[in-house]
Amino acid sequence: LVEVFHHFEQLSREQRNEYMKLHAHREFGTHKILSIFKTNRFEVHCSEGGIFLKCSRLNHACHPWANCTYEVIERKCLKVTALFDIAKGQELTISYTTIPRDLPRDYGFYCDCPSCPP
Predict the structure, then answer these.
(1) What does pTM read for this prediction?
(2) Which residue, among 14, 66, 77, 7, has the nearest Cα to 37 in the 3D structure?
(3) d(C-alpha 14, C-alpha 39), whole Å
(4) In angstroms, how far apart are the furthest CA atoms of the chain?
């Protein structure tokens, strides 16, 4: 937890401002900086997470149009790869979890993608 605050303080003012604009599913008593991290992090190693501002804007679908993978070989970046042909105007989605019932607890919403029952 301390590392999240430490890394946040190392960001430029502009980067901190962009970070603070991300959605935060806040648990009671949780600091906003930590809530943003927990809501928007992507796994980059076994137990480490990272924030990628553009990818954090992608919405969830249980059967997504794209997949995110972390690449450290060339440069530290998150690679978004289409899983299917994507039509012009189609929303690019990723899956936040393989267990949809965890979405309300972890992200604060229920999935309403075409694959989920109403």
Answers:
(1) 0.83
(2) 7
(3) 20
(4) 44
